[in-house]
Amino acid sequence: xxxxxxxxxxxxxxxxxxxxxxxxxxxxxxxxxxxxxxxxxxxxxxxxxxxxxxxxxxxxxxxxxxxxxxxxxxxxxxxxxxxxxxxxxxxxxxxxxxxxxxxxxxxxxxxxxxxxxxxxxxxxxxxxxxxxxxxxxxxxxxxxxxxxxxxx
Length: 152
Fold this sequence. Notes:
152 residues, elongated, 5 helices, Ferritin
């Protein structure tokens, strides 16, 4: 597979992942009790929406008029179903832990894409910024986990 095709495939995978996470966070926002937890999930939902808007612009630059299908991967489906089960069980500690696990998966996808050769500079900068924000949010969640769970 040529480098550009690998980049497009990984970028599309990241877009699909972010879209699925936006949906998961929206569902969590509508389901969880506690204002802090609701605000947290709403902020994450909006963050993923912004990420996808920015990534779509970069994808359009790479593709021109062509379009990639946005299909949900098995991995995204499993993550989604697991998260929805945790919401249903109302175990807020496990929900927060799962959010961290999802963020780690996402960071790995960003890193895989950033490791590709000949990334356009604008895409590289955007991916680095988004990955670093996800990492920072994950670190904050881990530090504040007990407060988030208490408020729920």
